């Protein structure tokens, strides 16, 4: 089974135009900022929205063809979906919610329920069978929604932030369960997530959407190493600059110059991790060939480090120790020099 | 089972209380007038008379059957109006409310012209199957359905429009047929609206008079329901008996409605 | 007079500045079966008494009496039977003696062309025919009962209508093969019904009384109208509508 | 503004279509009968006669005013029934539906007994303010409100019960008074239900006959609405005129309802 | 302003009994697994649920006193709340939603709207003023809900996973905005979150709920360093064991013995990070004094490392490089030895 989609839809100020191919058994993680069109894409694939243009083919069968006026109705698509706000049927019990899809496909009640019970157990929800959705916590509701979608073994599985509400303890368990399920599953899967780790763990491939377009795609590691947009860079925790290289230097649109470790020409992306940035109060004299004067915009503790946001000709994020913050007396509005060794910088064509 | 306690809001906004009190007064005071006027002495003998008991039974049976018919036919109509894009849907919606504005006697005449022995449909039924509707209990039900079903339809359509359609989309993605979706997702979601509509419908059917008397006639035991009995009393100048019969209908309907709704909606 | 009457009553006030000719508005509560005749009467009266405006409120006789008992401001009451008029007298809203101004008799009505071949009262006993008769408790029903008794017929009705108009409609639409209705109703329905001569009909009559009301805001106008009803032109108009003269 | 296209579901489940068709037939066929029977030749002269135009105006004005009164008084009553825990609430709910079962003529008698010049309230009004209600246009409105408001109340209560109460909780935490919450959150949320109720109420008021003729009389220009005019026509032996008048009411109400709902609900 | 709450509520099978004190200006991060009772706690404080017992005092004013039958209604509490499913008023525009609280407090329309516009801008939502909630993406809706709650400057601010739906780019921005707002704000704040980083960044103090009880609380760093429950340990990425120490060893309930670097006695918690765990196929002979034979349950890639879940007398999580996975031929079901240096282990009283 494979999905081949070419979608066009204008909705408010979103102009969605994306091509998407998912192979049999492949799991594609869909990333992108809020409002990029991820949920809209899933709705189009599920058939609850009708595209303005383009076509959708699942397994050789045309589900949508705007030009020919073809639109297969949701229930004939055999698509499973977990939506951002769960939409559990409020008047059915948890068990009935999960069993609903199997019952709809004609399974006898007892078998459907037995299987639903199994899924609930895998989601860590034994004993919740008879609850109503209103009696669940957020994370419990999300797990029920996930079980409800997975149980029907759809040809196309669409998961919209399926783990967002899970607690830190349950999330790896459910994620592992989901990964196990997806590994032994021949259909196509699209998972929307804001969690880079989740995208890496679950996705065979990552597709990044911004403003309705695909801006980057590829294997998770590749995308993580070579971000092509600010969003991806922030997602994977890298600084990203764009400039024009000639030889061992690159010039940024602001006029600033960045020294490179290897030769390059033409438009390039320049990426380096925040921990590679050293801050000092005076212009550094060491081996770091890149040093830029900046103004501190923000300080924020995370984990053992403090993330410093600094603005200037070359805006950077820097991760430094709390000790360094104290020593240098860093505070918003303060002047500071940031330096990065050329060897820490990766450069690739834009 | 433990119940979740909800906040209890003892102070009700006065801006709402004043018109509410006025509304309740308009509806309840006339009943007080009836109660004051009722001939309490003659009550037992009137209420236990054979005619009244027969009429009461007939009224309850026909109103209930009519509500059943209205549910079976009316809920799908409401669904068509709320969920599909039939061409001419808005005209259909208008037509469906017509029995509300039609003076009941005209409604009865209209029913005769269609289902009567010489009517469009009735003529065919009569010639083909020898079936004649007027003056039968079935005719009472038909008249009540005609007059009362619109209430159900409008109430259910309103509820369907308030309901969140995304649940239906989810059901569809899970492979439910539109029938399953309707039955297991849509309908339970609008249950309070359906109940409200059924209550309206039942009450209206119980009180139905004009169309019944014209289309079904008035014969004790087969077509003479309580309102017809009351009307006979009024025409005979026996306003007091009419009042007693009306109070009986009120008592029956209030009892049944209060009992039903408490069971269905939950008290407290 | 009374402010309340002015505010509430469509009858207005008597306008007569000392004229002989009665003027102002006369409010009449009249039985529904008198609708056509009384409206014709008002038209004709307008020629003789240009200052006199007649306002009718037609309804079921019993309802009219209820309204009067509840304080309806009106000048004249005309009912379709003496029972309801008696109620009005008993309730004190009428303090003069009501006058009978018309009588009505029953007719055996059949749909145009008489498809069931009804020939007389005896056919009302035929269970195969669809028969409509008024409910015995209402005026036309008690008349019908007396008529049937006089003819020695035990009717087999399919419906006991509470109002003559229903029975008339049923015959007009062909839903009933025969019905006992008032002659005036048969006349009003027109071509759609035929009447079969019933020899015994004249033995059972129904009387229409009229009276000026005790609290009539416009007693002169009321009296003028009453005179018109009981005398000419009322007599000929009522005749035309099928009413029998008062005895 | 761009519209979001929703899936169009062309295949409708047959299980629903069959009863729906039956339901529509029951409601619409009698009208077809009326249309066939109507004297099309005489139509223009009947429709343009002074009496008819006067009655039409009166009907439209009173039905609209009644619906306004019913909205102002009825929506708060529905809110009380759905949202508070008044003692005796379920009995109140039963009482509110009483005018539905009461034969309208008895309703008129009851109104007379309370608001008549010698009635409980009417007597006091008359003695204190010199106001007398019966037989005025106000009485027509009162009779229509009495008969039609329950439809509104029941429809709105159904909608309130379907609505999600958590929005009201959120509004409360944001500091909204219960009146603000009601006005800005609750009411907009149940707008379709209120609209449905108002439609029922208006249509019922437009067709109201029995209580009006008893309580308000049948005076041309002040209290003789279209249904009363039709009654007069029937009694004058003019069934055809009555049919024309009924068709007029149907046309008016269908036109207005179709127009209104399209504007309020949005077409397609 | 300060909050002092003592709450008891039985709801389904949740028996909530917690005491909670929040000082003026303090931000408390509420952590806990799904169904622990976090949302329930917020609803109790907001007044939309009535406690079975206990009392709530805000700023010296009693809001709830079950014994005395006192229950102040939500709207009189001046409490701001962001709920898990947003509950934006569906028939108001975004701007009206945000302005609602100010309008309810009597501000003139224009001023309320101007302020609402400012808040939307701070949330990165300029240009969305006239949208209906149904026309927003999940993350956009969440930001509107946050703005709606913050704008009224409530005495008590209750945020239920306020950033869960935000994308990686927006989340730090909104989080920083939130932190800035909370820093200059005298009221009490409770933030529910499943993100440990968020808890660390936003919270002055962390309170951990499990099954309706407070199981741990303290400054973020302290909680992170010394988890007292499995849930907290997993949250902060530590292995946590519980045993009885005597001298330089501790015995686990399974009978296994753990060597310690320092003396300890009595019941203790034993914590060590997954990166401190070394895996080998044979019993290690190096300086690591702790070595246990285990069976691999699960492997999951995250970031540059692979997390190995291993079961045995001493169940551990280990983070190893993909190279190590390949070299050792690790796979679920395989036998392996795990070793941890005693110096990597921190021990503290249970
Ligand atoms: N019904 C609608 N009408 C107009 N615009 C809409 C509608 N629904 C969504 N949008 C807009 O379309 C854009 C894409 O929305 P979508 O829900 O697909 O985003 P998303 O990528 O899922 O974002 P998130 O990560 O926040 O969930 C958003 O800017 C949103 O405001
Ligand atoms: N109305 C109810 N009736 C019965 N039990 C309920 C009800 N609402 C919630 N619960 C139960 O109470 C427990 C606590 O729910 P709560 O929503 O407070 O959890 P939570 O800590 O917010 O979890 P999450 O992180 O998943 O949002 C859950 O087990 C839930 O199933
Ligand atoms: Mg989304
Ligand atoms: Mg929660």
From TrEMBL, chains A, E:
<dbReference type="InterPro" id="IPR050093">
    <property type="entry name" value="ABC_SmlMolc_Importer"/>
</dbReference>
<keyword id="KW-0410">Iron transport</keyword>
<keyword id="KW-1003">Cell membrane</keyword>
<dbReference type="InterPro" id="IPR004606">
    <property type="entry name" value="Mop_domain"/>
</dbReference>
<keyword id="KW-0813">Transport</keyword>
<keyword id="KW-0472">Membrane</keyword>
<dbReference type="GO" id="GO:0005524">
    <property type="term" value="F:ATP binding"/>
</dbReference>
<dbReference type="InterPro" id="IPR005116">
    <property type="entry name" value="Transp-assoc_OB_typ1"/>
</dbReference>
<keyword id="KW-0547">Nucleotide-binding</keyword>
<keyword id="KW-0067">ATP-binding</keyword>
<protein>
    <submittedName>
        <fullName>ABC transporter ATP-binding protein</fullName>
    </submittedName>
</protein>
<dbReference type="InterPro" id="IPR003439">
    <property type="entry name" value="ABC_transporter-like_ATP-bd"/>
</dbReference>
<feature type="domain" description="Mop">
    <location>
        <begin position="285"/>
        <end position="349"/>
    </location>
</feature>
<dbReference type="Pfam" id="PF03459">
    <property type="entry name" value="TOBE"/>
</dbReference>
<dbReference type="InterPro" id="IPR015853">
    <property type="entry name" value="ABC_transpr_FbpC"/>
</dbReference>
<keyword id="KW-0406">Ion transport</keyword>
<dbReference type="Pfam" id="PF00005">
    <property type="entry name" value="ABC_tran"/>
</dbReference>
<keyword id="KW-0408">Iron</keyword>
<dbReference type="GO" id="GO:0016887">
    <property type="term" value="F:ATP hydrolysis activity"/>
</dbReference>
<dbReference type="InterPro" id="IPR027417">
    <property type="entry name" value="P-loop_NTPase"/>
</dbReference>
<keyword id="KW-0500">Molybdenum</keyword>
<dbReference type="InterPro" id="IPR003593">
    <property type="entry name" value="AAA+_ATPase"/>
</dbReference>
<dbReference type="GO" id="GO:0015408">
    <property type="term" value="F:ABC-type ferric iron transporter activity"/>
</dbReference>
<dbReference type="GO" id="GO:0016020">
    <property type="term" value="C:membrane"/>
</dbReference>
<dbReference type="InterPro" id="IPR008995">
    <property type="entry name" value="Mo/tungstate-bd_C_term_dom"/>
</dbReference>
<feature type="domain" description="ABC transporter">
    <location>
        <begin position="1"/>
        <end position="236"/>
    </location>
</feature>
<dbReference type="InterPro" id="IPR017871">
    <property type="entry name" value="ABC_transporter-like_CS"/>
</dbReference>
<dbReference type="GO" id="GO:0015689">
    <property type="term" value="P:molybdate ion transport"/>
</dbReference>
């Amino acid at each position: 089974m494979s999905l081949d989609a070419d979608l066009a839809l204008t909705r408010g100020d979103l102009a969605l135009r994306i091509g998407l191919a998912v192979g049999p058994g492949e799991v594609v993680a869909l990333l992108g900022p809020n409002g990029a069109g991820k949920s809209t894409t899933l709705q189009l694939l599920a058939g609850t929205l009708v595209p303005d243009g383009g076509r959708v083919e699942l397994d050789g069968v045309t589900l949508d063809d705007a030009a020919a006026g073809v639109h297969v109705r949701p229930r004939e698509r055999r698509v499973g979906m977990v939506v951002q706000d769960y939409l559990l049927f409020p008047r059915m019990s948890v068990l009935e919610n999960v069993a609903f899809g199997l019952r709809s496909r004609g399974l006898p009640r007892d078998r459907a329920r037995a299987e639903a019970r199994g899924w609930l157990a895998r989601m860590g929800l034994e004993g919740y069978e008879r609850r109503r959705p209103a009696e669940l916590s957020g994370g419990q509701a999300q797990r029920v929604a996930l079980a409800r979608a997975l149980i029907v073994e759809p040809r196309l599985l669409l998961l919209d932030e399926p783990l967002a509400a899970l607690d830190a303890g349950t999330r790896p368990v459910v994620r592992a369960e989901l990964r196990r399920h997806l590994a032994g599953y021949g259909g196509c899967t699209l998972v929307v997530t804001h969690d880079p780790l989740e995208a890496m763990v679950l996705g065979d491939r990552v597709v990044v959407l911004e403003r309705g377009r695909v801006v980057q795609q590829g294997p998770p590691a590749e995308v993580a190493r070579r971000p092509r947009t600010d969003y991806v860079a922030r997602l994977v925790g890298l600084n990203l600059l764009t400039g024009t290289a000639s030889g061992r230097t690159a010039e940024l649109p602001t006029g600033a110059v960045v020294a490179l470790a290897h030769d390059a020409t033409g438009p390039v992306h320049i990426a380096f991790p925040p921990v590679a940035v050293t801050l000092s109060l005076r212009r550094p004299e060491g081996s770091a060939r890149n040093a830029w004067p900046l103004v501190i915009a923000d300080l924020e503790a995370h984990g053992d480090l403090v993330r410093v946001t600094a603005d200037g000709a070359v805006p950077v994020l820097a991760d430094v120790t709390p000790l360094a913050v104290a020593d240098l007396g860093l505070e918003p509005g303060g002047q500071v020099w940031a330096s990065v060794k050329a060897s820490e910088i990766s450069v690739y064509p834009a | 089972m433990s119940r979740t306690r909800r906040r209890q809001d003892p102070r009700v906004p006065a801006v709402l209380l004043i018109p509410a009190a006025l509304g309740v007064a308009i509806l309840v005071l006339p009943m007080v007038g009836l109660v004051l006027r009722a001939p309490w002495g003659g009550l037992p003998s009137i209420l236990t008379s054979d005619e009244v008991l027969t009429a009461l039974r007939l009224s309850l049976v026909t109103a209930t059957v009519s509500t059943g018919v209205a549910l079976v036919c009316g809920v799908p109509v409401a669904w068509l109006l709320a969920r599909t894009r039939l061409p001419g849907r808005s005209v259909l919606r208008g037509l469906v409310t017509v029995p509300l504005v039609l003076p009941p006697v005209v409604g009865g005449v209209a029913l005769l012209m269609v289902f009567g022995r010489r009517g469009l449909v009735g003529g065919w039924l009569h010639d083909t199957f020898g079936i004649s509707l007027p003056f039968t209990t079935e005719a009472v039900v038909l008249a009540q359905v005609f007059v009362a079903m619109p209430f159900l339809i409008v109430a259910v359509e309103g509820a369907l429009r308030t309901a969140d359609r995304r649940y239906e989309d989810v059901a569809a993605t899970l492979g439910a047929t539109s029938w399953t979706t309707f039955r297991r997702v849509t309908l339970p979601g609008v249950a309070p609206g359906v109940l409200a509509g059924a209550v309206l419908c039942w009450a209206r059917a119980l009180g139905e008079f004009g169309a019944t008397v014209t289309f079904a006639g008035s014969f004790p035991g087969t077509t003479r329901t309580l309102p017809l009995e009351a009307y006979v009393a009024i025409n005979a100048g026996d306003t007091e008996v009419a009042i007693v019969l009306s109070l009986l209908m009120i008592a029956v309907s209030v009892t049944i409605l209060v009992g039903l709704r408490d069971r269905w909606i939950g008290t407290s | 007079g009374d402010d309340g009457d002015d505010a509430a009553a469509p009858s207005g006030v008597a306008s007569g500045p000392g004229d002989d000719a009665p003027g102002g508005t006369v409010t009449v509560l009249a039985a529904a079966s008198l609708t056509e005749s009384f409206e014709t009467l008002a038209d004709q009266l307008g020629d003789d008494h240009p200052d006199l405006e007649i306002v009718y409120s037609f309804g079921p006789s019993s309802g009219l009496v209820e309204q009067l008992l509840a304080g309806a401001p009106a000048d004249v009451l005309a009912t379709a039977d003496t029972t309801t008029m008696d109620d009005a007298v008993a309730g004190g809203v009428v303090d003069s003696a009501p006058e009978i101004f018309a009588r009505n008799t029953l007719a055996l009505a059949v749909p145009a062309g008489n498809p069931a071949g009804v020939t007389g009262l005896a056919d009302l006993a035929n269970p195969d025919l669809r028969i409509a008769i008024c409910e015995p408790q209402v005026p036309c029903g008690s008349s019908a009962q007396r008529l049937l008794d006089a003819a020695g017929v035990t009717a087999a009705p399919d419906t006991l209508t509470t109002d003559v108009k229903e029975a008339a409609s049923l015959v007009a639409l062909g839903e009933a093969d025969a019905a006992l209705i008032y002659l005036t109703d048969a006349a009003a329905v027109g071509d759609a019904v035929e009447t079969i001569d019933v020899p015994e009909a004249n033995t059972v009559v129904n009387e229409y009384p009229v009276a000026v009301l005790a609290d009539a805001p416009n007693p002169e106008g009321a009296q003028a109208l009453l005179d018109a009803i009981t005398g000419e032109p009322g007599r000929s108009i009522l005749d035309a509508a099928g009413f029998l003269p008062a005895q």
